[in-house]
Amino acid sequence: MFGAFRPTSVNLGGLLWKTPWKLSITRKANARARLKKVDAVIETVRASGIQCGALEKALQLPKEHEMDPKDKYTVFSATSRGYRKGIHKVPKWTRLTLRANPKGF
Fold first, then answer.
1. What is the dihedral of CA 31, 81, 76, 38, to 10 degrees?
2. 63 Cβ contact list (under 8 Å, min separation 6)
3. Is the pTM of this model over 0.90?
C-alpha cells in the first residue's frame, strides 16, 4: 500500500484527465466571447487595408453571430457516433479555428 510501489490513479485504471461530457454554461460563454474577439481582430485587420492570404481565408469563415449553436460547440468527427463531438474534446481547442465543417455536417 505504501512505499515505492504504491498504486497510483493510472495503475488502478482510473482516468487521469476527467473531461466532462458537455460544456458548462460558463465555458460556452467563454467560447462565444473568444469567437467575438477573433471576429473583432479580423475586422480590424480588414479595415487597416492590409492584403494577405491569411486575411482572405479568415474573411471566408462565418462570424460568431452567423454560426449555428451546433457549429459553435461541436465539431465533425468521423469516429464519433452521429459524426459530432464536443469542441472541448479537441486538443488545444481554444487555439484552433474550428468554424468550418464538411458540407452536410
1. 0
2. 39
3. no
Instruction: Report the C-alpha gap between 29 and 18 in whole angstroms.
Output: 21
> How many residues in the chain?
105
Residue 102 Cα distances to 25, 64, 83, 84, 97, angstroms: 26, 18, 11, 11, 14
Query: What stretches in the chain show pLDDT beneath 70?
Result: 1-16
Q: Computed from CA positions of residues 74, 43, 57, 67, in that sequence, does the dihedral angle turn out positive or negative?
A: positive
Distance CA 70, CA 99 (A): 11
Closest CA to 57 of 97, 95, 102: 97
**Residue at 49: amino acid letter:** G
Encode pLDDT of 83-99 as tens digits: 999 999 999 999 999 99
